[in-house]
Specification:
Blueprint (H helix, E strand, L loop, with lengths): L6 H4 L2 H18 L4 H16 L7 E5 L4 E6 L1
Antiparallel strand pairs: 1-2
């Protein structure tokens, strides 16, 4: 998942997968009764992106060095 503004990130495969997972879990999250349950849902979303099959990371742009660096590894 690339964490920067712009149209190019909308089509990034990681961002597409992220939006799909968020869409799937949106109603579950909205119906969660407590903060602990919402936190558990959020952690499961991150875990599913970082899973062995996806090998996903959250990246942000490092303009100083003109490269992308990991936020969550």
């Amino acid at each position: 998942v690339v964490c920067v503004n712009g149209e190019t990130t909308l089509e990034h495969p990681g961002n597409v997968a992220y939006r799909k997972i968020i869409s799937t879990n949106k109603a579950i999250f909205a119906n969660a009764k407590c903060l602990k349950e919402k936190l558990q849902i959020s952690k499961s979303i991150v875990a599913s992106l970082q899973g062995e099959a996806n090998n996903g990371r959250f990246l942000e742009r490092d303009d100083e060095n003109d490269q992308q660096g990991g936020i969550i590894t």
